[in-house]
């Protein structure tokens, strides 16, 4: 009888211990069906305008006697993959600018604002190769196709003309088929491996591209200030809404670093507060916002000396 009583007490103690241990485990919170754990609908951020120049194919792959540089299918493929991934982030308005050489010339000539974007992305395929390997055994055979790709990216800050980010990513894609005693799958030429390898290379760069393009305050510019009103560039597509307020800055003095030879502007000085009254325009390139001056003042005859910042 004493033995049974002792075993019962041990069992109860064990159950109590289990209950205590369970109480100490982290609890998982499950949302109620009517509750949305996602970001609130009105939570938003202003979008940067990013111009993506046409990619170039710097490899010899696919370059025959009738090759046309401006219609390189692999370069277009890389551009489409990059734009798709950047667009999925929801942080940018993407502008395709195919003539990258002309854009770079404008930047070097100090005409960056003509590009109509905050950043310019230039890219090239620097490495591309396809190989097929196989192995035959007594009863089995195996065949593998492998594609390796390297993609290089440069990001240029349009306001300064400086390259703020440059890196190369590499990707690989592979498919394998096996057969035993002549039975099994047989893999022919797999064209999708090119997509996967290039996509893998770009995947290594996308997060850094997003971080580099969003690590400074959102900025836009005055485009008009007269009897017709004060107008800034950007509208609904960039997330600007009536009632938003922004700070107007006067550009700092332009100086040149004697060590690097690079010219740049010193930090700007806030001179006025602006409030958005209405937005208009049909496309991201033509949208604008009409604003009013809440406080402060500025020289309406020298709009190029100012910029608007979040």
From TrEMBL:
UniProt keywords, alphabetically = Cell membrane, Lipoprotein, Membrane, Palmitate, Signal
> Could you identify this protein by its name?
Penicillin-binding protein activator LpoB
Question: Known Pfam families for this protein?
Answer: CsgG (PF03783)
InterPro entries the record matches: Curli_assmbl/transp-comp_CsgG (IPR005534)
**Gene3D superfamilies, per database record:** ABC-type transport auxiliary lipoprotein component
Q: Which residues form the signal peptide?
A: 1-21
């Amino acid at each position: 009888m004493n033995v049974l009583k002792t075993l019962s007490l041990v069992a109860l103690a064990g159950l109590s211990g289990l209950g205590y241990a369970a109480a100490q485990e982290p609890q998982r919170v499950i949302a109620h069906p009517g509750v949305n754990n996602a970001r609130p609908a009105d939570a938003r951020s202003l979008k940067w305008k990013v111009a993506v120049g046409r990619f170039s194919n710097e490899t010899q792959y696919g370059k025959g006697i009738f090759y046309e540089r401006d219609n390189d299918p692999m370069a277009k493929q890389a551009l489409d993959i990059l734009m798709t991934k950047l667009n999925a982030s929801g942080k940018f308005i993407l502008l395709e600018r195919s003539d990258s050489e002309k854009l770079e010339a404008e930047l070097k000539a100090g005409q960056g604002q003509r590009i109509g974007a905050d950043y310019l992305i230039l890219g090239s395929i620097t490495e591309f190769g396809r190989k097929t390997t196989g192995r035959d055994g007594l009863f089995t055979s195996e065949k593998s196709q492998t594609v390796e790709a390297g993609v290089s990216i440069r990001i240029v800050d349009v306001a300064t003309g400086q390259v703020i980010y440059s890196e190369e990513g590499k990707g690989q894609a592979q498919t394998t088929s096996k057969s035993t005693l002549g039975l099994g799958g047989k893999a022919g030429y797999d064209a999708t491996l090119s997509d996967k390898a290039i996509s893998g290379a770009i995947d290594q760069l996308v997060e850094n591209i997003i971080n580099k393009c969003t690590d400074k305050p959102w900025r836009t510019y005055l485009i008009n200030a007269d009897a017709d009103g004060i107008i800034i560039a950007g509208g609904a597509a960039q997330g600007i809404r009536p009632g938003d307020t922004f700070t107007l800055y006067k550009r700092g003095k332009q100086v040149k670093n004697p060590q690097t030879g690079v010219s740049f502007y010193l930090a700007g000085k806030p001179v006025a507060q602006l409030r958005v009254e209405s937005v208009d325009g049909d496309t991201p390139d033509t949208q604008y916002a009409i604003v009013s001056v809440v406080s402060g003042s500025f020289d309406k005859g020298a709009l190029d000396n100012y910029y608007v910042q979040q």
